[in-house]
Each structure stands twice: as structure tokens, then as C-alpha cells.
Inverse folding.
């Protein structure tokens, strides 16, 4: 893939841009295997790959420039806006929506935030596209100053983007290198985006996490389902369950699944998805701390699923799983370094199957799915 922004030096976010896709995947696969290390009995499946362009379904764009000529992209070293609305890794639906969002900044007179002077309102525009092509837009603002104008002109934006279902205003009053603030104001009737993936409809709220490469995420969930079906566990715990992706993907007719997540909003969304799918009798979700629950549990499931952030599950949870005598663990990792450390902390659980998923083409990052068996 070639990128004019990269070639011109305007953006270097995709650190491997321009390299052959096959070489990128081969080197990432080799790096992941090296990080995990040689482990007796571990079989690596071939990497799962998808398109090298147009794959990203979430755009986190800095709003720069001026109110009459806004940019959507990043800031350069001098804090000037660099427009990246035609970024080639973004999905066609995201790119098509960018002009209307830029026009809305102008129409609603939302001054882009100026880092140098600490003045202005619009900090970020975060746009997500569902697999069905529907959109969610989050406008990250410094204050409530522009909200009356945003509400006034919102019908025009919705008319310009008929697939736009959810619009929110996120308030980030502090001058800091943060993507978003704590307060979220929903401005549309819908407060969540229906997100259909791997035969499951998830409900994506403004703050919810979802993989940004839908095609590879679907392959990940389907692979997880196949591996779990091969084990045929009766009871499953999904720790770090988020809005329920893995829990709902692996649900079976005679399988009880419990998802644990610290975010109550995510638990509510996951519960809604289970109810709509007719799975509420066997798939349940609870808000809580995964490590504390695992340590305090009097019994154990047949399988534990973990899908942690980049920092991994950490020593405390790894030790709790190690001591729990759970026979199977399914670990989805976005960081092979912490994955390897966590595997070392669970010596009684032996990795038996692994596969790399090229979730982030043009970068060094990848997702790795590993199945572990005790003994």
C-alpha cells in the first residue's frame, strides 16, 4: 500500500507503510513466535490476514485549522492541523463522512482548539462505523459553549449523513494530551451503535471498546468459537469481557457463560445484547474486578477467557488463574511482550495452539490468540 501523506512526511503513524504486506505479516508472525518462545507442544496456525487498506472502522481525528477551514487529522510539531481525511487505512464509509463533519464544524461555528493559546472548543472528532455502515460521532469539546449551536444544526448533519445514528459531546476541559474527558452528553435519540459481528449484535456505547478492524475481529471471534467448541466446556468465565464480544461468540446451547467487566455501562450493553439474542438464560454479565473475583471464587469454570489491555493480565490475576486449577484458558493478546510474561506466570497451563491476527496492517502491532491446557 502507498500513502501520499506518509510519502510527503505529513503523517508517520503507520510505521511500516509502503512495505509489502506479505513481508509485514511474516515478520510480525516471527516476532510473536519469538516473544512467546519455544514451548513444547505449541502449534502455530498460519496468520489470519485481511485487506491492507480501508480496514479501519474507527477514526480519532484531531480538529485543527480554523473554524472556516477546519482540518481533521493530526497536529504537526508546531501544533498546526494536518488534514488526513483521505487516509487510506480508513474505511470508505469513514472517509465519505469526513467532509460533512468538517462542514458541520464551520456551520455550528465550533472553533478548533488551539494548543498554543489554549483557546477554542473542538478538540477531537471520533467517528466509528459499524459493519452495517451506520455511524457514531463523538465531538470532544473544551466546554459547553458550542452546545446550543451544535444542537441547532444537528438536524442538518443528520440529513447530510443519513447513516449517522449516534452523536455525543464529550467534555474535556483540561489542557492535557488526552483523547476524551469524563462527561459524555448524548445528543441523539440513540445512545449506542448496533454492531453486528460474528453472528452477534453488540451494542457499542460512546466509551465502549471494539476492535478497529472489523474483518479481522470477526475472524478472531469465529476462531475463538471453533477452539472453544472443540473443548466443549460447560462453564466459561470471560474476564475483561467489555461489551460481551467473546462471551456471546462462544455461547453454546448447553454452555453457561459469565462475563466480568469493571465498566457498568459495558455490562448493561452486554446484557442487552444477550437478551436480544435470546441467550440471557445462559449468558450473564456482572460488574466487578476480574482479579478479585477469581481470587475469591469458591469454584472454577471449565474455561477462562482473558482479553486484557496492552499491560496484560498481570501477576495477581495470572497467579489466581494458576492456583484455580481451571483446565483451559483462552488468551487474546494485543501485546506479545506481556503475553509471554503472563504465560510464564502460569506454568501449569501449557500453550497448545496459537495464531496471529493481523489486526493492524502497516504497523508493528498484532493480535495473538493462544489456547492453554493445564498439565
Amino acid at each position: 500500500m502507498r500513502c501520499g501523506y506518509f510519502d510527503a512526511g505529513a503523517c508517520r503513524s503507520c510505521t511500516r507503510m509502503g512495505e509489502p504486506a506479505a513481508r509485514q505479516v511474516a515478520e510480525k508472525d516471527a516476532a510473536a513466535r519469538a516473544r512467546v518462545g519455544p514451548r513444547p507442544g505449541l502449534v502455530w496456525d498460519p496468520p489470519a490476514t485481511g485487506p491492507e487498506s480501508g480496514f479501519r472502522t474507527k477514526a480519532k481525528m484531531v480538529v485543527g485549522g480554523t473554524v472556516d477551514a477546519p482540518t481533521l487529522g493530526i497536529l504537526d510539531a508546531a501544533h498546526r492541523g494536518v488534514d488526513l481525511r483521505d487516509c487510506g487505512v480508513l474505511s470508505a464509509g469513514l472517509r465519505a463522512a469526513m467532509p460533512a463533519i468538517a462542514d458541520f464544524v464551520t456551520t455550528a461555528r465550533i472553533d478548533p482548539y488551539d494548543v498554543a493559546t489554549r483557546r477554542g472548543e473542538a478538540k477531537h472528532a471520533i467517528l466509528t462505523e459499524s459493519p452495517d455502515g451506520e455511524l457514531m460521532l463523538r465531538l470532544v469539546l473544551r466546554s459547553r459553549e458550542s452546545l446550543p449551536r451544535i444542537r441547532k444544526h444537528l438536524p442538518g448533519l443528520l440529513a447530510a449523513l443519513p447513516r449517522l445514528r449516534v452523536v455525543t459531546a464529550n467534555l474535556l476541559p483540561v489542557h492535557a494530551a488526552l483523547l476524551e474527558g469524563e462527561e459524555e452528553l448524548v445528543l441523539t435519540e440513540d445512545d449506542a451503535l448496533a454492531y453486528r459481528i460474528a453472528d452477534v449484535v453488540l451494542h457499542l456505547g460512546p466509551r465502549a471498546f471494539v476492535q478497529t478492524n472489523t474483518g479481522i475481529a470477526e475472524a478472531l471471534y469465529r476462531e475463538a468459537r471453533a477452539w472453544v467448541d472443540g473443548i466443549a466446556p460447560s462453564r466459561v468465565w470471560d474476564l475483561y469481557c467489555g461489551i460481551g464480544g467473546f462471551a456471546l461468540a462462544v455461547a453454546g446451547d448447553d454452555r453457561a457463560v459469565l462475563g466480568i467487566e469493571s465498566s457498568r455501562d459495558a455490562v448493561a450493553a452486554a446484557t442487552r445484547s444477550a437478551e436480544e439474542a435470546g441467550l440471557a438464560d445462559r449468558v450473564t454479565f456482572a460488574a466487578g474486578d476480574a482479579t478479585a473475583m477469581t481470587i475469591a471464587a469458591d469454584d472454577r469454570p471449565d474455561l477462562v477467557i482473558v482479553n486484557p489491555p496492552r499491560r496484560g493480565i498481570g501477576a495477581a490475576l495470572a497467579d489466581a488463574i494458576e492456583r484455580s486449577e481451571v483446565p483451559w484458558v483462552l488468551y487474546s493478546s494485543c501485546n506479545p511482550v506481556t503475553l509471554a510474561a503472563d504465560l510464564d506466570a502460569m506454568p501449569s497451563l501449557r500453550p497448545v495452539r496459537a495464531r496471529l491476527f493481523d489486526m493492524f496492517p502497516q504497523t508493528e502491532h498484532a493480535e495473538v490468540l493462544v489456547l492453554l491446557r493445564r498439565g
Notes: The two ends are 45 Å apart (CA to CA). The chain is about 30% helix and 25% strand. Residues 58-204 form a domain with the OB fold (Dihydrolipoamide Acetyltransferase, E2P) fold (CATH 2.40.50.1070).
